[in-house]
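User: Can you help me understand a structure? I only have the sequence.
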Amino acid sequence: MYHRYVKPKKSLGQHFLKDFSVAEKIASTLPAGTGLPTLEVGPGTGILTQFLLKTQDLKVVELDRESVACLTKRFPELKGKIIEDDFMQLDLRRLFESMFMVIGNYPYNISSQIFFKVLEHRDIIPVCSGMVQKEVAERLASGAGKKSYGIISVLLQAWYDIEYLFTVEPEVFDPPPKVRSAVIRMTRNSRQSLGCDENAFRNVVKTAFNQRRKTLRNSLKSMLENKKDIAALPVFDRRPEQLSVEAFIELTNLL
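Assistant: Let's start by predicting it. Here is the structure, written out as C-alpha cells:
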C-alpha cells in the first residue's frame, strides 16, 4: 500500500483513504465523457487518482512534497500535470482556459474554504464532488427547516444542486479520523442571476444565521432601523432556518 510510504501530516489534515472500493466509488461520482478536464485536490498517494485516470483528463494539486514524490514515481502519465501548490492559492482561471470539474478527498480543516472557492468560480466549475466530514456534508446538502441548514447551505445551494451520496466510516482511513465522513456532489443549477444584489444577499444570510435562534426581526434589527414600514411583515416572525434560498432572495430585495 503506497500510503505506508508517506507519513500522514496532522498539520495538513491528512487521513489517507486505504479502501480501494470506496476510492473507486468516489471517482465514479464525476460524470465520464464530458470532455471537460478534471482537477483533483489533495491526491496524497493517489488512491483516488488511479481510478480517475481511467475516465478523466486529470491534473492534480498537492501541497505535500512527500506525496508529490510518491505521485511522480507512481503515475508517469501525470508528468507535467502535478501542481505542487496550495489549492487555496491557485489562480484557477489561469490554470484552465475554460470549464473543468473538481474532485478530492478534501482536507477536513479547510473543506468549507474549498467549497467557497469553487463557488467563486461557479461560471467555470459545473461539477464538484468528493469526501468531507459528515457534519459538513449534511450542512451542504441540508434543506430549509433542518437543524444542519445554515449559511453554507444557502450560499452554495443558490448556485448548485447538492447531493449527499453516501457515508464513509473512519476505519477505512490511515490514521482513522475521529469523525465519520461522507461523499457529496455539487452540480451547477440553471440560475444565471440571483435577482438581487449578491453582496447584500450574503450579508443578509450571514447576519440572520449569526443569531439563528432569534427571529429575523431581532437578528436583522440593524437592517430594519429605517424600514419600520416592513418590520411588521410576517416573514420577520420566522427564524433563518425556516427560509428557502428563494425566500432569502425575496428578503434581500425587501431590505
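Now, to help you interpret it: Strands lie at 16-17, 37-41, 57-61, 82-83, 101-105, 127-133, 160-168, 173-174, 181-188. The mean pLDDT is 93. Let me know which part you'd like to focus on.
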